[in-house]
Amino acid sequence: MIFALGGNQNCGKTTLFNQLTGSNQHVGNFPGVTVEGKSGTVKGHPDVTVVDLPGIYSLSPYTSEEIVTRDYLINEKIDCIINITDATNIERNLYLSLQLMELDIPMVIALNMMDEMRENGNTIKIKQFSEDLGVPVVPLAAVRNEGVDELIDIAIKTAQERKRPSKKDFCSGAVHRAIHSVAHLVEDHADRINVPPRFAATKLIEGDEPMMNSLALSDNEKDMLEHIVTEMESETGTDREAALADMRYNFIEDVCSRSVIKNGESKAHARSVKIDSILTHRIWAIPIFIGIMGIIFWLTFGVIGAALSDGFTMIIDGIIGLIDRGLTSYGINPVVHSLVVDGVCAGVGSVLSFLPTIVVLFFFLSMLEDSGYMARVAFVMDKALRKIGLSGRSFVPMIIGFGCSVPAIMASRTLPSDRDRKMTIMLTPFMSCSAKLPIYTVFVQLFFAPQYRALAMICLYVFGMVMGVVVGLILKKTAFHGEPVPFVMELPNYRMPGLKSVFMLIWDKAKDFITKAFTVIFTASVIIWFLQTFDTRFNVVANSADSMLALVGQFISPVFRPLGFGDWRAATALITGFSAKEAVISTLTVLMNGDVAAVASLFTVQAAIAFLVFTLLYTPCVAAIAAVKRELKSGKWAIAIAFGQTAFAWVVACIVYQIITLF
After folding, report:
1. How does the average pLDDT of the chain come out, rounded?
2. Residue 80 has pLDDT above 90, yes or no
3. CA triplet 10, 59, 39: central angle to 5 degrees?
4. Which of the 8 DSSP states describes residue 517?
């Protein structure tokens, strides 16, 4: 059996999914849309699969999530819908429930957060509530695993008995007549596409274009439909969408008046309002957020993450050393030895050292997300980001980009539209990742006086953000016309993060990072080793200057002469930097016989500044490009970002070099 888990955002859907499936889950993408969904086997029921659908507020096709959910429910063979609702905000949650009932699929309502209802002295008469809605209703507290076993038992029974919602008619008066007239009009078309006539009728009355196209009505039927809708609007004195919304909310109010007993404001809501008076203050909100992120980055990159990365690096070095000694004692061919140790182990090992940092960063960000704070950040930053064509939701991936572009690009999948997602992915690499810090540090120390070094570092980070704004404005006026998706969101109550949910998310991200991005790193490491080791006749070189990599560097170096650094060694370093930005400095050091200070002989001060600007702006590393390909499901987009950003970096670095040279 297949169960579909659907509900509003922030209603505890992910928590319930984790309780139902435990670790028996796998991640997959729904066809045609970059929105992630999960499916997993229910614990103790190996023949029952639950599919976690994106969180939505209605079945109208306004967002990617709504399109994915509706298409899945209509086109797939679903045995039962588990509709999870927030008991503390029952009126708004039931709006989606009524639309799900119209699909005429066996359904169970999971009434979540009943623990908070009890805490506030409120209650719901479950039996009355179930009778009024015509579907089984199960109270639960998913975060405490209360009621979950009862829910799955009732869902299985409902599916086995094919017990459909007994009440699908929520209307009266003019709306009642309109819905039933349209349902009768389109009944044969609805049966043809396997959609309940009432559901088709309500969608047509709302002006749902995809439903209109699917039904393929004749011109006469379309004229009759418009006549019915016009009569309804005239009689109700409101437009078509508002008329249906009023119909649903009138029914919801009637049901809740008999079943829901409230004794005042929720304690969690009152507490959240007090906290928001500080955290979303019109003056202090942004400084407080900067302070919180500063602490997180300090802990991630300076204290916890650094200690874990150092320890992890020691373990990796120990393993590589063990492999090195083992291959040496075995007497393996020196070339194969070099491939394994200097190519594969060194390449993959250097990137593996970032894993603890990414895990720590995602831990803190998941805690903020689970607590409800990140929703406030998106709300606060929305106004500023709209000026460059994005909404507040894009801010979080950009912040993550200062740590590493790979998880930042992965974080963009939460954005509601394809346009916003693509634009955010294109702008995120302008937020300078931590992997570029070794380049900045070496060049600033070599070419700037001590009193100007801190200022130079700050200017690099600020310059990257400014260039991101410039590119955002260009994209808004060219490739991404129009405005971002209207930023309508719910600010959930602040809650203590669920550690199980947070750790499962961290495990998911870590596993994803290792299995996806590292396959590309492995390939790139082998290629770079090969180019550094052999000449064009495939002889092992004694001097890397005679290698194929050097030959490629000499071929490309004329491109960088207008930027002031035409030496083949600088070009070679930029090529290896594509695998990982840290490789820029390591390559230059190797090519200068281990003397870092000798790097200064390759550049003038003007050329060094241009080199810094170019490395700041040019293509992200291969792991980030692989993440782009995976998130956008397109190699063309990944290639376009890699070459487009490199071309932009060349133009900006050239302009900077020429201007500085003039003075």
Report:
1. 83
2. yes
3. 60
4. I
3-state secondary structure of 576: helix
**How do beta strands 36-42 and 45-52 pair?**
antiparallel
Q: What is the pLDDT of residues 238-268, one digit of tens each?
A: 999 899 999 999 999 999 999 988 876 677 7
DSSP 311-378: HHHHHHHHHHHHHHHHHHHHT--HHHHHIIIIIIIHHHHHHHTTHHHHHHHHHHHHHHHHHTHHHHHH
Residue with tokens 């490739």: 479
Say if CB 596 and CB 564 are below 8 A apart: no
Percent of the chain as helix, strand, coil, to the nearest 5: 70, 10, 25
Rounded Cα–Cα distance for residues 248 and 254 (Å)? 10
Instruction: Give CA–CA dist 524/6, Å, rounded.
Output: 41
pTM reported for the whole predicted model: 0.70
Q: Is 3 left (phi over 0), alpha (psi -120 to 50) or beta?
A: beta
Tens digits of residue pLDDT in 484-537: 666 666 677 787 777 776 777 777 767 766 765 567 667 766 777 788 788 888
CB of 107 closer than 8 Å to CB of 101: yes
- Crossing angle for the helix pair 90-101 and 126-133, nearest 10 degrees? 40
**Burial environment of residue 526 by CB neighbours within 10 A (0 to 12, 13 to 18, 19 or more):** middle
Residues 372 and 498: beta-carbon distance below 8 Å: no
Fill in the amino acid letter for 651.
V
What confidence category does residue 394 fall into, taking pLDDT thresholds of 50, 70 and 90? confident
Q: Is the pLDDT of residue 658 over 70?
A: yes
* Beta-bridge partners for 124: 260
CA distances (Å), 294 to each of 375, 399, 406, in order?
18, 11, 20
